[in-house]
């Protein structure tokens, strides 16, 4: 019933995810919200009249929610509710995250490393070549990175296709339900992604790819990623919205510079000029700036088995992470970053060092557990 209620509530609050998520966090589940839909002020005294009014309409969406669940079961689609283990844990920390997502594929949405690559729908040869080189090199440096984009023309589809070519999992966040595919010309790539990535959306079936939905899906692209890479963009465009959202979520933002005066480099150059993004020239730069340069060493150490050091020497930042984990228990990287004030790129590097020293280990869902 929890999943059914999540779907019904999401349909009522389809354009107001933040108030619904706040209510969900207060009460702990969609079931608890439904139990109090007729007397919400008994548990949330400051509930607004508008919120009360909207909750009274939920019953009318239950039948549609049942139809959605039936369709999902028949088409290998997994509804991921906010508290489900498979829900993207990075996105879970965003205040406007959707209460439920619909997912079809086999990639781990909580992969240790997740990036999004976005840009213009009119990618130039320059932009296409950068995506090709970047992902080929990234695969050698960090073989387990999940690549997220939006399946659109231009940079998006280049990111997906080159990720597939290099053996990297790749997920497309769609602006419509999973009963359709837009643009239809990318269907063959989308089918390949089902076995090396997946398709993800917050929208139920029979939802058209309306313009506003593309803007809404950008927050999922940004929120579920560790870093946002803008390859090419005009002075205005959807990829700049994604970059701004990423910054608001405390994610790292990178932009590929271009020649002054080039239309589809203007947005990237402006991001760099305004210190809203870090200049990105190569995968080597990216991996170093994110602190991921030791991924290959970690993979080798995990295969050989890491001998735990009972008395490791820790830096002050490492000590602060250990102290926080000891006090709070298992936590995810974004929570640690926000709580300690350590940027997420630096945090990833520190957690790797702690794992190599045998002080922490990674659990399912991206949680870090203190071993000492």
How would you sum up this structure, described in words?
46% of the residues lie in helices and 13% in strands. The protein contains 17 helices and 12 strands. Strands 1-2-6-5-4-3-7-8-9 form a 9-stranded mixed sheet, with helices on both faces. Strands 10-12-11 form a 3-stranded antiparallel sheet. The longest helix has 17 residues, at 125-141. The chain is globular and about 55 Å long.
Task: Provide tags for this entry.
single chain, 372 residues, alpha/beta, 9-stranded mixed sheet, 3-stranded antiparallel sheet, 12 strands, 13% strand, globular
The residue-averaged pLDDT reads 91
What structural class should be given to the helix and strand makeup?
alpha/beta
Low-confidence stretches: 304-311
Radius of gyration: 21 Å
- Total strands: the figure is 12
Kindly report how far apart the N and C termini lie. Answer: 40 Å
Please indicate the percent range of residues in DSSP E strands (runs of 2 or more).
Answer: 5-15%
Spell the H/E element sequence.
HHHHHEHEEHEHEHEHEHEHEHHHEHHEE
Shape: globular
Q: What does this entry show, briefly?
A:
With 372 residues, this protein is α/β, with parallel strands linked by helices. It has helices spanning 2-12, 17-27, 30-35, 49-55, 62-74, 89-92, 125-141, 155-165, 187-193, 211-223, 238-248, 266-273, 283-290, 295-304, 316-328, 333-340, 344-356, and strands at residues 78-81, 100-105, 114-118, 146-149, 170-173, 197-201, 227-230, 252-255, 278-279, 331-332, 360-362, 367-370.
Indicate the topology.
Layout: H1 2-12, H2 17-27, H3 30-35, H4 49-55, H5 62-74, E1 78-81, H6 89-92, E2 100-105, E3 114-118, H7 125-141, E4 146-149, H8 155-165, E5 170-173, H9 187-193, E6 197-201, H10 211-223, E7 227-230, H11 238-248, E8 252-255, H12 266-273, E9 278-279, H13 283-290, H14 295-304, H15 316-328, E10 331-332, H16 333-340, H17 344-356, E11 360-362, E12 367-370
Parallel strand pairs: 3-4, 3-7, 4-5, 5-6, 7-8, 8-9
Antiparallel strand pairs: 1-2, 2-6, 10-12, 11-12
Helix pairs in contact: 1-5, 7-8, 10-11, 16-17
């Amino acid at each position: 019933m929890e999943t059914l209620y999540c779907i019904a509530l999401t349909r009522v609050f389809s354009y107001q995810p933040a108030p619904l998520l706040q209510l969900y966090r207060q009460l702990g589940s969609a079931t608890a919200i439904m139990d109090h839909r007729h007397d919400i002020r008994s548990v949330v005294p400051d509930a607004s009249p508008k919120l009360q009014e909207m909750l009274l309409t939920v019953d009318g969406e239950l039948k549609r929610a049942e139809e959605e669940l039936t369709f999902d079961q028949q088409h290998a689609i997994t509804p991921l509710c906010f508290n489900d283990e498979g829900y993207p844990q990075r996105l879970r920390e965003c205040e406007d995250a959707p209460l439920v997502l619909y997912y079809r594929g086999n990639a781990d949405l909580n992969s240790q490393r997740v990036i999004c690559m976005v840009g213009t729908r009119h990618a130039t040869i320059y932009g296409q070549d950068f995506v090709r080189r970047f992902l080929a090199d990234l695969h050698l440096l960090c073989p387990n990175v999940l690549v997220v984009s939006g399946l659109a023309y231009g940079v998006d589809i280049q990111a997906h296709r080159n990720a597939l070519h290099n053996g990297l999992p790749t997920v497309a966040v769609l602006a419509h339900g999973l009963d359709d595919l837009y643009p239809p010309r990318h269907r063959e790539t989308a089918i390949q992604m089902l076995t090396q990535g997946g398709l993800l959306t917050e929208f139920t079936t029979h939802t058209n790819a309306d313009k506003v939905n593309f803007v809404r899906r950008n927050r999922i692209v940004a929120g579920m990623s560790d870093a946002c890479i803008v390859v090419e963009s005009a002075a205005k465009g959807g990829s700049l919205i994604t970059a701004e959202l990423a910054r608001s979520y405390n994610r790292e933002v990178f932009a590929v510079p271009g020649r002054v005066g080039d239309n589809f480099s203007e947005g990237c150059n402006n991001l760099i000029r305004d210190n809203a993004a870090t200049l990105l020239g190569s995968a080597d730069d990216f991996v170093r700036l994110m602190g991921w340069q030791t991924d290959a060493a970690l993979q080798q150490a995990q295969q050989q088995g890491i001998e735990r050091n009972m008395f490791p020497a820790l830096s002050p930042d490492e000590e602060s992470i250990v102290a926080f984990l000891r006090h709070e228990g298992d936590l995810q990287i974004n929570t640690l970053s926000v709580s300690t004030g350590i940027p997420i790129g630096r945090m990833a590097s520190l957690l790797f060092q702690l794992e190599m020293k045998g002080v922490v280990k990674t659990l399912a869902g991206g949680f870090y557990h203190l071993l000492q």
